[in-house]
Amino acid sequence: MVDEEDFLADLENDFELSGEEENEEDEDIQEVDKAVSNVDDDQDIKDNEESNINIDSSTNDGANAADQALVTRMKELVNNERNLSTEDMIQRLDMKSIKSIKTITKLLSLLDPVLQRIDTLEKNQVDFTNNHYSTTDAHYDFLVTSNEFVSEIGNEISLIHSFIKSQYSPQFSELETIVVDPVEYCQTLLIIGNDLGNAPSKSSELKKIITGEKILVINMSILELKISNLPQMIMNSIIDACNIVIKLDAARIKITKFISEKLSTYAPNLSRIIGSYCAVQLMSYCGGLDKLAYTPSCNIPSIGTKKPVKIGFGQVGIRQKGFLYSSSIISEVPENFQRQAMRIVSGKLLLAARMDLAGSNSDGSFGIKTLEEIQKKLEKLMAPPDNVGPKALPIPIDKTSKKRGGRRFRKMKEKYQMTDLQKAQNRMVFGKEEDTVMTEFGDEIGLGMAGRNSMLGTGNIRAVGNTKIKHSLSKKMNNRLKGADSDVLTIGSLGHHYGSKHLTNVDDLVNSLKRKADEPVGNEKKRLHN
């Protein structure tokens, strides 16, 4: 096995080729191929393993041996990949100096045997449902390892996609920003080819792969380019790399479909909730059931979401259209409730994934129970509001109503209504200057038509007072005044009463004085004595 430092040192020495070292190029590429592939150096062991793959599956021992041999190679590849990630490979390798894509691919030697083994298992209809997780079970171990192998296929596609972009960028660099998906990018490149001038005539073929908006942007971008064809040797390597990407994507789909059909034993609870196909997509993306079980629930809806193209295209509705969005449990929900449904399902599927990782409820009972709970929550969420009929008016309470009218109320309004002088102050004569008065606080108040200049020529110097606002005596006070004949009114007392506020009616006062003057003096003395 090659260490990471030695591997990177070999890559740097191999890819820094000068023009004088062209004769040694083939030998360096062979060394890189051996270093990147990370397969056992013993060629005899590889030949024996490949011969075991082709063993007739009629007997269980032969099938288990073939699975075990293939699984061993797949595990070695997956474990070696963990020493150096695909992102590090893309950053540290000089893609433009690589002549052939086969020097950096690692899965081509294993891809055909894996697909052949899947065909054999499907043809013989091997039953996985009665198996339980065991390292000695070759069939089940192959199923688990295939799930990890799918994620490695995705890494391989990313690596080859980076190689294609670096080689094709001198021809049409804008294509990688318009078509972001690696598979769609390769399919589009194969249709456009090296002749960009004829790209508009191939729009009908491109419509099968990408949208009409992207086709329009591609055609407009080509018109602004200075077309210069790539050398045929470079174009052939690009075409080979595109074909490899398409082949890897087809293999990934086939392996994913196979795992989804056999997933009832590996993750029974998870597959009961979101379906086998969606479950294997999430597991493949995360790198296995253990990685999925420790993923935060808020990240689940965004797993598998295609990044929007940053060329002015908008997106309406839900942005997180990943693997979970395409599952049956979410697609059956109306669009207005899909975001809430994904939030509910995300938390529940992680609980099921942890159950499957712990090996509990292997019959899928927890998944079935959880699915029923989710469906009840969604039904309650989508249920229309209760049809409440018209609400009856409350029973009126018998109580005395407040009197807001009548003679007394009208009298009170007449007392405090606006006077004629105030009304005149609010009006102005057109074409005449308004009289103003200064208050003690320095404020200037306009008099309007109540001013002297406005009243000149009208004969009215002062406004007539309102007689309705004259204060009237109460009934009690009137009765006291009428009974004044029982009192002795002297000159002093008369003057006192005359100057008081109560004797405002002069006629009553005069009449009472006349009556007292006509009475005899004896009677008066008698009254005084009494």
UniProtKB/TrEMBL annotation:
<keyword id="KW-0539">Nucleus</keyword>
<dbReference type="Pfam" id="PF09785">
    <property type="entry name" value="Prp31_C"/>
</dbReference>
<keyword id="KW-0507">mRNA processing</keyword>
<dbReference type="InterPro" id="IPR019175">
    <property type="entry name" value="Prp31_C"/>
</dbReference>
<feature type="region of interest" description="Disordered">
    <location>
        <begin position="1"/>
        <end position="62"/>
    </location>
</feature>
<dbReference type="GO" id="GO:0003723">
    <property type="term" value="F:RNA binding"/>
</dbReference>
<dbReference type="GO" id="GO:0071011">
    <property type="term" value="C:precatalytic spliceosome"/>
</dbReference>
<feature type="domain" description="Nop">
    <location>
        <begin position="266"/>
        <end position="383"/>
    </location>
</feature>
<dbReference type="InterPro" id="IPR042239">
    <property type="entry name" value="Nop_C"/>
</dbReference>
<keyword id="KW-0687">Ribonucleoprotein</keyword>
<dbReference type="GO" id="GO:0005687">
    <property type="term" value="C:U4 snRNP"/>
</dbReference>
<feature type="compositionally biased region" description="Polar residues">
    <location>
        <begin position="51"/>
        <end position="62"/>
    </location>
</feature>
<feature type="compositionally biased region" description="Acidic residues">
    <location>
        <begin position="1"/>
        <end position="30"/>
    </location>
</feature>
<dbReference type="GO" id="GO:0000244">
    <property type="term" value="P:spliceosomal tri-snRNP complex assembly"/>
</dbReference>
<keyword id="KW-0694">RNA-binding</keyword>
<keyword id="KW-0747">Spliceosome</keyword>
<dbReference type="Pfam" id="PF01798">
    <property type="entry name" value="Nop"/>
</dbReference>
<protein>
    <submittedName>
        <fullName>U4/U6-U5 snRNP complex subunit</fullName>
    </submittedName>
</protein>
<dbReference type="InterPro" id="IPR012976">
    <property type="entry name" value="NOSIC"/>
</dbReference>
<keyword id="KW-0508">mRNA splicing</keyword>
<comment type="similarity">
    <text>Belongs to the PRP31 family.</text>
</comment>
<dbReference type="InterPro" id="IPR002687">
    <property type="entry name" value="Nop_dom"/>
</dbReference>
<dbReference type="GO" id="GO:0046540">
    <property type="term" value="C:U4/U6 x U5 tri-snRNP complex"/>
</dbReference>
<dbReference type="InterPro" id="IPR027105">
    <property type="entry name" value="Prp31"/>
</dbReference>
<dbReference type="InterPro" id="IPR036070">
    <property type="entry name" value="Nop_dom_sf"/>
</dbReference>
